[in-house]
Amino acid sequence: MLxxxxxxxxxxxxxxxxxxxxxxxxxxxxxxxxxxxGKATALRELAGVRSIxxxxxxxxxxxxxxxxxxxxxxxxPVMVPDLLHEIADALRPGTTVVSIAAGVPIATFERILPxxxxxxxxxxxxxALVGKAVTGLASGxxxxxxxxxxVRALFExxxxxxxxxxxxxxxxxxxxxxxxxxxxxxxxxxxxxxxGKGFEAAAARTMAExxxxxxxxxxxxxxxxxxxxxxxxxxxxxxxxxxxxxxxDAHLDDVFARATDAALARAKELAAGA
Length: 274
Description:
The chain is an alpha/beta fold. The chain contains 12 helices and 8 strands. It folds into 2 domains: about 5-170, Rossmann fold; about 180-270, Orthogonal Bundle (ProC C-terminal domain-like fold), CATH 1.10.3730.10. An 8-stranded mixed sheet has the order 3-2-1-4-5-6-7-8, with helices on both faces. Strand 7, helix 6 (about 145-155) and strand 8 form a beta-alpha-beta unit. Helix 7 crosses helix 12 (about 250-270) and helix 8 (about 180-195) packs across helix 9 (about 200-220). The chain is elongated, with a radius of gyration of 21 Å.
């Protein structure tokens, strides 16, 4: 079982983690906060979740943090320093603070929070909503092995976990963090191509979506290298071979390198407060 947890700012990502924790049955005490009554009310339907609307309970963030052994900070990056100042003197000694805010370094947390506060920086992605997230974790210097294990177990309720040095968190965010958007874009464009071939929109969407879903399931089930699975689909001198040649001529390796470089540059801007 997991210790008492507070999630401050249960927006899209924080909300996904709330659902994962609530569904896991591992959370013995889970308190979440949101600014609005509407968002808070929706989460009150989850079993074992205490959901606070800051509009109704302005001290909600401090109250939730004071009762938790693990505090997840899920507000927007620009709001993180103010929130940390708000809860700093409410934290119990030894409480682990976990960031899910993109671009905010551990140093920012350690500068504002009481000395010795264990801080973990995380980078989950949106498939957390369906229990298929990839979450990167980087621990600060004050985090014990036991505390790191608790945080890992927390995020394993919504998918798989990769532990990395903090220097790699921003780079990880350009792959798994932003990655779902790349996949959705590819599905979107393949759907358009199907419509261009004369298929109705619904059939085009089904073909594109289910092809990606099926291919991902095959990749997961087979354990094979994706290059090997691609080769098996690509018969010599066949239709797929010709299509793949066009894609390779488009230099997808360079496209993805430049796209992830652009995302990394933006992550560094966010870390600098730009």
